[in-house]
Design a protein that fits this description.
Two copies of one chain form a homodimer.
Chain A: E1 6-11, E2 15-21, H1 24-29, E3 37-39, H2 42-51, E4 56-59, H3 62-72, E5 77-80, H4 87-98, E6 102-103, E7 115-121, E8 127-132, H5 146-150, E9 152-158, H6 165-180, E10 184-188, H7 192-197, H8 199-209, E11 212-216, H9 217-224, H10 229-239, E12 242-246, E13 252-256, E14 262-264, H11 278-291, H12 296-310, H13 322-328
Parallel strand pairs in A: 1-5, 1-9, 2-7, 3-8, 5-6, 9-10, 10-11, 11-12
Antiparallel strand pairs in A: 2-4, 7-8, 12-13, 13-14
Helix pairs in contact in A: 3-11, 11-12
């Protein structure tokens, strides 16, 4: 890889997380699906926020978290996503850049505010997200910089954005650039309800454009219309060169086309505090390893290590340097 | 105390903290005094923030932290302080109200932004604060609600604001209201350099208006112009009915006029993560106990317990309910 290259560029929602503790009664009273992600409008964002406990604000967004983790692993990352020209947007941009990530997407002026995700964390560390997307949905093809995408070994798409027509155009543009430059693409499915709503479009997009597919079990079941692993593996191999299925504390499975399934063990965290960002961190380890040409077992070990760090504290971005942890563990 | 009364109302800076890790080289490069609080202008706030590591935003402000801790102890608290009409101001207001605190000061429109404190936390848990005061300095006598102050057993002033001429008028107005209602007043000195700059004015204000004085050792040495404890105690008794001197891990000393010094042990925290807010939490325990008529040893024990909780994590406001911890410890 040339010195000016990137390991991974992420395309996703530019979101600031607002994180607080909540009990199940609070989730029920506000019709918040425990463990899920619900899109809300500005009015709902105000009423849920008003009722929430005191919180902390910390930059988030699924693909942005992944790229921040990738940088912490020592990878070179870039990000494409839309903030507004406001304080939250400044925080988001600062935190990505301070993590060493290239982030040059122009902020939105005169439109909705920077996106925020109201994250209520239960005593069992599950996070329930109510997300107001605001400026993030205004991402479009014009925000995809051809030279930047061509410099990245892997372009990584956040599934949450797939439902937005303008963002989907941006995805397709980036895929064409990546293909023309001989680069790879990856996508995370983000949410099983979303996969259900956009099933045909996802299958077509992945089949046509995607080299690396990331999904948790629920998302994989929905996409491949089965809960039998043999069926899922067969259909995954038919659809995509490499599929990763994450299974929380049971670890993950890597399914390469034309190769055996590689089982990856989970790494037990020191403390289980907040599962926000576990999947994002997993993606960082996997994509970093793939961009560097590591074998699948080593990619998976990096992925599990990154996920374990992130669930040990509040917030989806690493507190400890992941490259140091990976060296201690003998993976880097 | 009547049902509509308050234990303590705080008058202080309405500030959102931006907290990140930093090493000593970073502090040196940006001329940040380790362990201290430096006031900065908007330009310095931008340049320091640009260079800082990724951070979290969490509501702060010395007296506001104290009132949030007081609410966590089960006390009824109010706060008077100035935010701007912006996102950070919304966070600040939300977090205090969500903690159960009365906070009705009108936001500033069309002036500077809500105050922020850039807090760089060293590996040894020391915090170095670079504070842009923005809207917080616009607090004035008109923001002091006579009925609200008259309802509070203790009105508590943040020393940081004492230097602002309009805020000092607000302090004097609140003292007159408290005196007329037969209530008590308290002040924290906040910073020894500030005490040095405003020495005569502090001595006059405390002698004329203040019942309870809080200071750390450096501030007490500066105010009483001595580092001999006997001299400090003698001068403290002459100036003020009750003086509390905090001494970090050595605990604290309560000096009542006409009574013996009461030595209070520090409570060792489970982990030492971030000393931001230790003094604020101490003040909460002390003032809550005094408002409820507890003896000095019990007030001090509550103060030490609150401080220990807050230094065990990032941020100056309690993560665990302090009343539960105090009950476990047999103090409540």
């Amino acid at each position: 890889m040339p010195a000016t290259g990137l390991d991974v560029i992420g395309v996703g929602n530019a979101i600031v997380d607002v994180i607080a503790h909540a009990d199940d009664a609070f989730l029920a009273a506000h019709a918040i699906a425990k463990g899920g992600m619900t899109l809300i409008d500005g009015a709902a964002a105000r009423s849920i926020y008003e009722a929430m406990a005191p919180g902390v604000e910390i930059s988030g967004g699924s693909a942005a978290n992944t790229i921040a983790c990738l940088a912490s692993l020592g990878g070179r990352g870039g990000f494409i996503g839309k903030v507004a020209d406001d304080t939250l947007g400044e925080f988001f941009r600062h935190d990505l850049r301070a993590a060493g990530v290239e982030f040059d997407t122009a902020p939105l002026a005169g439109g909705p505010a920077t996106a925020r995700s109201l994250i209520n964390v239960s005593a069992d560390a599950q996070r329930s997200m109510s997300t107001f997307l605001g400026a993030a949905t205004e991402l479009g093809a014009a925000d995809v910089d051809e030279r930047q995408v061509a410099r990245a070994a892997i372009t990584y798409f956040e599934g949450y954005l797939f439902e937005m027509p303008r963002a989907r155009e941006a995805f397709v543009k980036a895929c064409r650039i990546a293909a023309a430059a001989g680069r790879k693409t990856a996508i995370t499915l983000s949410d099983s309800a979303l996969v259900d709503r956009q099933h045909t479009a996802f299958v077509e997009f992945i089949g046509a454009h995607v080299d690396i597919l990331l999904a948790n079990e629920a998302e994989a079941n929905t996409l491949f219309e089965s809960d039998r692993f043999e069926t899922i593996a067969e259909r995954a191999r038919a659809l995509c060169p490499l599929t990763a299925v994450t299974r929380s504390e049971k670890g993950s499975l890597l399914i390469p086309r034309g190769g055996d399934v590689v089982e990856i063990a989970a790494v037990k965290p020191e403390r289980l505090v907040d599962t926000t960002g576990a999947g994002d961190a997993y993606a960082a380890g996997l994509l970093f390893g793939l961009a560097r040409g590591f074998d699948l077992a080593r990619c998976g070990a990096l992925a599990s290590l990154a996920a374990a760090e992130v669930i040990g504290h509040f917030g989806a971005r690493p507190e400890k340097k992941l490259d140091g942890l990976a060296r201690e563990a003998g993976i880097l």
